[in-house]
């Protein structure tokens, strides 16, 4: 009965492995509907470094402002439709920096232009209101008094239309702090214009009709549709907690990424083949089953990466290759324990069971420490290191399955032939 159960489990495992092979193999049916996601270092793209100006931010608010900025830029970057864009923060001395990685993007200059020198949005009260407000008016002139209300307090803007006239208008939303500031400012400026500047350029100066509470404002006027859309874009562009400045740019060519991928796959293939040959030569029958388990492990790992749409990077591939070594290490522990039992005169099948039982504690402890390290790396690091940690974590979990379940099941079924 136990052998029948093992045969059923083995057939199921082999069926899943075969399906996984068709699914992950280049050009197979699955690839047409679920392509691989490749990182910046494999498909090329742009690596942009921005410096965050936190000089006007209170120290207590610094962390939340930086994270808020990261979220805003990440939403903006996602509009490019690139493969798994990476946006994260870092520190260099006392300077806060924002790192933007755009994999697969072809027009880097367009990306920089859209992310911007990141315009700074500012609301200003108007004194001695001039007859003609143009975009050339700057904050240095005496008729504008800057307020505390900036893009930091703006959630965003949206284009809407009047229900009666269908006239284009702009809806503006503020966070809680911004709502309070905006309420005070509008109360003090009823009947007067409130100027809005983007990078010291006046973009609009609507007349305040009444005190506005609740953090929702509406800008109306004789806007054309294009004018209203442009105004919405400008508000959203300036809705940032702090201004940022591009200080570094690195472009990774697609051909370089393809070469790196080819070299990595070649190295991983050669390494896997050498491991398989070593296991077969040294452990003979045991090694043959370990080799099959290793191939199944690789197929299952790639299947998980593809199903979960995890982005492949060179660091991630390195994590998988490292976990291959750990999968073999588990088999070696099991086989050595089994050989010790056979030398004692124990029959092969009981020796296999005892070998697994005695090796399990060492396998469990070594893998748990690796899993803990991977989890820590994943949560406290960013970028490629985080990708490495995730790949290693997935690889180790699947390697435990392949070593304990797959290899053990095959040995239970074919032990008499060893």
What can you tell me about this protein's structure?
The protein has 418 residues and is an alpha+beta fold. The chain has three domains: 2-40 and 253-417, Up-down Bundle (Multidrug efflux transporter AcrB transmembrane fold); 45-118 and 245-251, 2-Layer Sandwich (Alpha-Beta Plaits); 121-239, Gyrase A, domain 2 (2-Layer Sandwich), CATH 3.30.1360. Helices cover 55% and strands 18% of the residues. It contains eleven helices and eleven strands. The strands form three sheets. Strands 2-3-1-11 form a four-stranded antiparallel beta sheet. Strands 5-4-8-9 form a four-stranded antiparallel beta sheet, covered by helices on one side. Strands 6-7-10 form a three-stranded antiparallel beta sheet. The radius of gyration is 31 Å and the shape is elongated. The model is unreliable at 134-140 (pLDDT under 50).
